[in-house]
Amino acid sequence: MKALVYTQPRRLEVQDLSDPPVGSKEALIRIKAVGVCGSDLHGFSGHSKRRVPPLVLGHEFSGEIVATGAGVSGFQSGDRVIVYPLVTCGHCAYCLSNCQQLCASRKLFGLDFHGAMAEYVSVPEDCIIALPSGLSYTAGALVEPLAVGLHVLEKCSNVSGKTGLIYGAGGIALLTYLAVRHMGASLVAVVDRNPHRLEKIKELGADLTINANEKDPVEMVLEWTGGRGVDFAVDAVGVRTSQLNTIACTASGGTVVVVGLADSTCEIDFQRIILRELSIRGSYAYTKPEFHQALSWIARGVIPAEKFVSEAALWDGQHVFEELTTGSSKLAKVILTI
Question: 336 to each of 31, 88, 131, 207, how far by Cα in Å?
């Protein structure tokens, strides 16, 4: 099969690889659409120690089953499917309580083994979900990043009638913004450095957009909220500045949710957190119920995907990744298709 292989920092090459074997209780999926995640870009840039080349990236994907292994009973060749990309043990306390993302033995496509930026991938039956008729493969590839947003939403608790801040305007940030809006957040501000992405999210109804290259986000948010700060803030970037600024922008008693993974360490003033009783919560991936909820939202048209998704050919991946890592791309969310 042909695959788009991450071979070294800032280099993707189309290579011929062996077709993946189909084991017991696995299905071989012909990839139709795969999303480009911020973590893929992080790996491409050479900033992810966990993505070691040579590696086929991609964990947001949909496709068609072309073969099934022994023991597969729920699917057959020709089925249109999406994939829950976390492969877990299935029997630990976390898995049994629908917290699969916390399983100690979890593995992720495109990180721990080859992912979906290829013609084919073998997937355990437990990770396969039927794609409803009428939904495109591109829509199917959006389920995974939306599920990330729904998990962030859960960490924010009840956002109805509250004010919020989304730090970042990339794919995850954008979908998180749409999720909190759908659940009734009254006012939401968004911070980014890319004017094109800020304009896009403004078109989607953001109440305040702040270009961090031009203005101080903390000053702007505090002025916007009369000095109080927002009820909840989401850091979808994960660098020192965004981490500190989301804390500084949050009102006493509020919640900060960290989902961005750009930097692993940051010095935090815990006195500020203690005296203001801030809750700081990490958010990683999603549960299986949240993944199914994301599919339901997309099937019901809750998320206006057509307003921010761009498609490109998988084999043009080098160009697409270069474009997305410029920091000034007009593209918001890219789905690569075969």
Answer: 10, 26, 18, 31
> Are 230 and 165 spatial neighbours (Cβ–Cβ below 8 Å)?
yes
Helix locations, 73-164, DSSP H: 93-96, 137-141, 143-155
What are 309's strand-pairing partners?
Answer: 333
Residues of the chain with CATH 3.40.50.720: 149-282
In 168-326, DSSP assigns E strands to: 187-192, 208-211, 230-235, 250-258, 279-282, 309-313
Contact 101, 108 (CB under 8 A): no
Fold classification of 2-142+303-337 is Quinone Oxidoreductase; Chain A, domain 1 (3.90.180)
- Helix, strand, coil abundance in the chain, percent, nearest 5: 30, 30, 40
Q: Are 121 and 314 in contact (CB under 8 A)?
A: no
Rounded to two decimals, the pTM is: 0.96
Peptide bond into 304 cis (omega under 30): no
Which class for 315: exposed (0-12), middle (13-18), buried (19 or more C-beta within 10 A)?
middle
Determine the Cα–Cα distance for residues 101 and 73; give it in Å rounded to an integer: 25
Question: Which CATH superfamily includes the segment(s) 149-282?
Answer: NAD(P)-binding Rossmann-like Domain (3.40.50.720)
pLDDT in tens, the chain (338 residues): 999 999 999 999 999 999 999 999 999 999 999 999 999 999 999 988 889 999 999 999 999 999 999 999 999 999 999 999 999 999 999 999 999 999 999 999 999 999 999 999 999 999 999 999 999 999 999 999 999 999 999 999 899 999 999 999 999 999 999 999 999 999 999 999 999 999 999 999 999 999 999 999 999 999 999 999 999 999 999 999 999 999 999 999 999 999 998 777 778 889 989 999 999 999 999 999 999 999 999 999 998 887 889 999 999 999 999 999 998 999 999 999 99
Domain with CATH 3.90.180.10 in the chain: 2-142+303-337
